[in-house]
Task: structure prediction
Amino acid sequence: MSWMQAAPLALVLLVFFVAPLVFVFVVSFFDYDRLAIYPAFLLDNYADVFTSSITLQLYSKTFEYAVIVEAITVAVGFLVAYFLTFHVRTTAWRIGLLVACTIPFFTSNMIRMISWMPFLGREGILNDVVLAMRLSKTPLDFLLFSDFAVIVAYVHILTMMMAAPIVNSMSKIDKALISAARDAGASEFQIVRDIVLPLSRTGVALGSALVLTQTMGDYFIVHVLSGGKSAGVVSAIATQLSAFEYPPAAASSVVLLVVVVVLVGVIFRVVDVRKELAG
Amino acid sequence: MSQFKDTPDTGVTRRSLLKGGAAVAGLAAGSGAITGFPTIWAQNIKNVTITHVGQSFSVIPQIGAQASKDLGFKIEMQAVDLNTQMNRLFTQPDSIDIADLSINTVPDIMKTKIGLPISTSKYKWWDKTMPLFTKGEYTDGKKAPTAGGAPIKFQYYTDGSGAKLSPTPTDWLASIPTLTNADTLGIRPDLIGRKIDSWAELLNPQFKGKAALVDEYDIGILDAAMALQASGQIKYADIGNLTKPEIDATIKKLIEYKKSGQFRAFWQNFDQSVSFMASGEVVIQSMWAPAVTALRARGIPCTFVPLKEGYRGWGITLVPLKHLTGLKLDAAMEYLNWYNSGWQGAFIARQGYYSSVPETAKTFLEPYEWDYWYEGKPAAKDIHDPFGALMEKAGNVRDGGAMTKRMGNVAVWNSRMDEQRYLIKRWNEFIAA
Result:
């Protein structure tokens, strides 16, 4: 009975995922003051989200980060995956290098974020080098507490999320296909463009979905590395929660959820992951 | 138990463990026992755990450990962020026995009916408490300013029902005040190299890209308003309670400053403010006293600089919650009386805070420590922070001087404004701009 096999997971998802989500949706219509929420059916919270000028500001900032990070992680992730799959000859080395890629993840996210400060700061290592090499007369301020710093941190954390599924896709590519192409006179560039890239797009799509959801849902990295100067969609939700304003926070969350689901849907529409995985 | 407001809806005792204790406790309370327990009670009370929940600047594990040692029952200190604290307080008040709060939260406690009014006769130290809390006056009898959330506005209930606050003294306390301080700007004197004596300096173009502001809407707006008023850009009718147009004008100015690059960063917890200062990213910013002592303990010069417009004052208070009954309630009251009996006051004095009962703190401080922290006299010996690190070399004087001088010059008290909802919305826009 297949439904019995699926039941435990379905039950867990129902209780810990679907139910809270439904609850958030319901609360998003509630009324509130600064101490309590009151059951109601009001569209005011949504009206606030859609009429406030800040919404557009927050979303455009979040999209800006997401698009830049997506572009960089795809490029870097693809190259890393390509190298690991096709240029590292033994499996032992490949696994060893893959594990090496995860070393930064051995410490907590908090430590990793804080570590950027002594590196990128005004009196940080990078600025010391810049000053010592006389590349600039004054320390470069844009390195820390800036969009630059936020993107560096995102790329640092998320490239692995992009690379791992791409490695997975690439390792399924028949090596004989590559050999045949090479025998037929194809250059390495042609092989990458015409064989590797199309055949690893499932990995790129999965990786992109992961990177996108992570950047759209982040609050911590953008706060710490922008020095609180920049805010994403979730930052505003966090402020509302801290002020005990649950219903508008719920409404913003629902809107964000819809946006993310649509975007991920578009990615999977472009690349039919199910078909590719089945094939 | 008559001194406490015992409403019928408290559900008597939720924990069967306490059932036996309640009767005994009633007996003990009748005998006015504050010191020394009857034998049976002493047996039972060992099983009591009092959960004290607040933020890390006042809810410190060492204080809980000392209280547990002195009292013979367990005090569990839970330091949480403000957000978590408020959520637990208003949605699960039963998970907290003693709430450690900013005194301006009292009206919310009253409205939600989760606090327990306390009779002055039950609290040992009321006649020794700073007149700032008891009468809204300074020690010299001068009236303290009331802009914003002045403690006296939230100190008394009209009666034991706890339904209404009284602006004048009564026999019913809404909470037990524990500590107070006056906040100002923190600076790196070594990197600035000149005298800073006005809030306006926060917005001085000289510190472009080197200033920081606290990103907490309620405190951040006050620091910003002090700076805008000091620099003559905005004149507020009541700086402790801004109107919508005043909030708009303030946020508009702040966005302009942000866009021009005045602020290097915004901080949300005091560890961040310490790292901004320590790394030299910021030379002038909103700051809290323990952050200043933390920097000095690390050997980094940092001054909590006195400003001519005055300080931003605040008070912290303990609220026993209404679900407390029987033995547990007596244990909680015993704990509240312990809290201001001196050990805690001395501990927090060393991070720059004033106890609400300075007299008791004094007995636990070395004379030279008292002279430095409270009297503003030059340190006769090296001054150490609560955790034992060297904070100040002998010979130096506390920034701002004596308590009377610092607390005597409060311009505005931390407050929760009437237009809070609007303020939050606009503050979010400022941070996102």
Observations:
- DSSP finds 17 helices and 18 strands in chain B.
- The longest helix of chain B spans residues 244-259.
- The radius of gyration of chain B is 22 Å.
